[in-house]
Amino acid sequence: MEIPPETVARLEQENQDHRCPGGPESCVRIHAIAKLPTRFGGYQVVAFQNDWDHREHAAFVHGNVVDAKEVPVRIHSECLTGDAIGSLRCDCRDQLIDSLERIGKMERGVVLYLRQEGRGIGFVNKIRAYELQDAGYDTVQANEMLGFNPDERDYAIAAHMLHSLHIPSVRVMTNNPDKIEDLKRHGVDVVGRIPLIIPPNAYDRPYLITKQRRLGHLLDLEQEEESPPDESAPDGGPSHREAPGPSG
Ligand SMILES: [Zn+2]
Ligand SMILES: [Zn+2]
């Protein structure tokens, strides 16, 4: 089961001249849809583009999600170092693979892949933040030192993509309650949450603990701790030397 050819044709047709009256900030339109067999199962890829800044985004779709209710959705922000290279400074690649694997086994679902590197701060700034973390600061401190909020991502684009795919309601695969609130603010009907638990590795544990403590993620990490985390780190000075960086 996939999006049938007549529906593909209808989506492409209705997107042909699409432009939101609100302006360029968060408008995307579907440019093409193709089959994408993957090691995680049969997918289709939907290519989106923002016609103002030409930024491109993707939806990886399993099953026929068009007009389906309560569709499982994972929203993934691009992470070159994690997704493509396998960096252990973050859990992006594990989360991406886990969500593609799980959705690939479900009746239907979508992984939205947003091209907003480093939680929206861009690739160069992400590496600047890593450099600060190499010097001992945690993710949140490093982003603040560079003048960014802890999470600059904007879910307006994700909401638009779901709307373009005619998905009326979703269950979001996330540990981040803010993500759910952001989506709701942008008009997405979120009817549930699917937890996504990845065991930490030696490098990303401090980053995941920062996520849990300072960004409100529901990760349940501290029970698994063998030794307590560095209590002096979050509000005081530099934390672990290997403290990893922003994901996304
Ligand atoms: Zn639009
Ligand atoms: Zn990452």
Subunit organisation of the chains: single chain
Structural domain count: 1
**Order of strands across the biggest sheet?**
1-2-3-5-4-6-7
Q: By helix and strand content, what is the structural category? A: alpha/beta
Attached small molecules? zinc ion
How many angstroms does the end-to-end distance come to? 31 Å
What does this structure look like?
This protein has 248 residues and is of the alpha/beta class. The protein contains eight helices and seven strands. Mean pLDDT is 84; it is low at 223-248. A seven-stranded mixed sheet has the order 1-2-3-5-4-6-7, with helices on both faces. It has helices at 5-15, 80-84, 92-105, 123-134, 139-145, 156-164, 177-185, 205-214, and strands at residues 29-38, 41-49, 56-62, 71-77, 109-114, 169-173, 189-194. β1 and β2 form a beta hairpin. It has a single domain (5-219), classed as Rossmann fold, CATH 3.40.50. 41% of the residues are buried. It binds zinc ion (2 copies).
Secondary-structure blueprint of this entry?
Blueprint: H1 5-15, E1 29-38, E2 41-49, E3 56-62, E4 71-77, H2 80-84, H3 92-105, E5 109-114, H4 123-134, H5 139-145, H6 156-164, E6 169-173, H7 177-185, E7 189-194, H8 205-214
Parallel strand pairs: 4-5, 4-6, 6-7
Antiparallel strand pairs: 1-2, 2-3, 3-5
The chain binds zinc ion (2 copies).
The site of one zinc ion has 4 residues, from loops.
Note the main attributes of this structure:
248 residues, alpha/beta, 20% strand, seven-stranded mixed sheet, disordered C terminus, Rossmann fold
